[in-house]
Amino acid sequence: MSESRGCRGLWRRRPEGWGQTHRQRLAVSFSLSFGALLLVCLAVVYVSQYRFLYRTVRRALHRFTTEFQFEYICQREEPRGGRPLSVSSLPPGCAETLARELPRFEPLTAFELPSGAQLVLAGSEDGKPVELVYDVVSEFVVSRRVHSSSGSLEHIRVEFTEESYGHGTNEQFLLVMSPSGAVLAQSDFDGRFLPCFGQLFASGVPDREFHELECGGVSVLAHTSRLYDGNVLVTAASFERFERHLGQLPAIFGLTLLLMFPLCVLVAAVVSRRLTRGLVQVSRCADAFAGGDFAVRMPPMREDRELDRLAQAFNRMADSTQKLLTELENVTDDIAHDLKTPLTRMKAQAELELMRHGDVEFASTVAENCDDMLSAIQTMLDITRVEKRLADGRPQPVGLCGLLRKLHEAFSTLAEDKGLAFALSLPDREVMLSCQPKRMEQLVANLIDNAIKYTPEGGQVRMALEQTGTDVRLTVADTGVGIAAKDLPLIFGRFFRADTSRSQPGNGLGLSMVKAVAESLGGQVAVTSEPGRGTEFVVTLPLSPA
Q: Are residues 430 and 517 in the same domain?
């Protein structure tokens, strides 16, 4: 394999069929999203502005009603610096005091003086205009004054005229109307608006209500309030100026959209290119890798954390694939080498038996060597299935103590025949592990078989199981020939056989199977050995599924 190299240069090639790419779709999506966002903003601003202006007009009309009610009753300006109050929001103590001391008094308007300690109330008592001063602290009516009813209309006409000069013609409408709807006093405004106010009396005398009217194609909001003498005060405002202002907003937003959209498209193109740059690099690297350039790698992309993780994942995949290909080449060589010997023996035995004209032994030898080859091939397939997590059955709870007892019993005869002491140490309670029973049995059996196989007569083989927290440890130790230090890193490789083991039957796949099964369960295998004194294998497995 050649040295790994980055694929940054592959980005310089423009991807074919750009019109069909994810990058273009992202750019179009961003542009449309921006346009939709502007339209939503238009709707939100338009509705917000309308509600704000509507509330502003309502507050202004309520203030005018309070002021003109006071001026109509008292025939003078409202208290300087006084804050208008709704008669429905008077302090509880004030309402109770009025009901107790002045039960016939009906408040129509109220002001809170700047000090906040007193209220000025104006209303009617037995049809007469009355002004009260109420002390909030002591909850006591400080003064009571009865005003003359004559001159109210003349005074309010003057106030209407002065107010009209400040707001402009046809912007504000101030009227005093009789219970029958006749106009008694009005501010200066176009006469075409006058008939619409007569509609307010179509269903009776209105009092303290807001009304939306259509006057000569102009929307008008009116507020009505009954005066002390039965007449009705009408304060109204035109929405024509506000509607004209709101009508300009769509044009402003449309122009903004036209001016901003090209910039939006440019930004979307830049952003989409930045977002898809890493994907294009991965695609190019994958194409190169699929074309046989197994050394290609993704460069770091630290400016984008997600893309950097994608690049790292690609590189890990490439490293694993390259390693697998290398191991495949080695395995091919190993298979060719290890299968050459039994095939050669088969050929020699066949030629010899043919010369002797004997068939039984020849057939027996051929069968034995074929079994060896089939066993090696099947073990290789099993190891591959385990390493690639190709499950041949669902994991199930397995009692490790019971499994070890069964295998200890099965191998005890073999150990006795060889003159070995075979000890088993188990915890008091059963240890359950979720795994494939067949694979777990293969793991333990291979370790026991190796320990017995490489331990001379008179030696010892010890197997122990213990639980440590959330892990379980399986130990298989022997007092056998041991493993040289230079061979320890290699013993889990496929078909590896140390010099001391070549005189024993086997194919060098047992420990590869042990390692594959342990790692498939999220565990690991550790080995310590001293030549001439023995070997100890320790398999650590998590009790929870890997």
A: yes
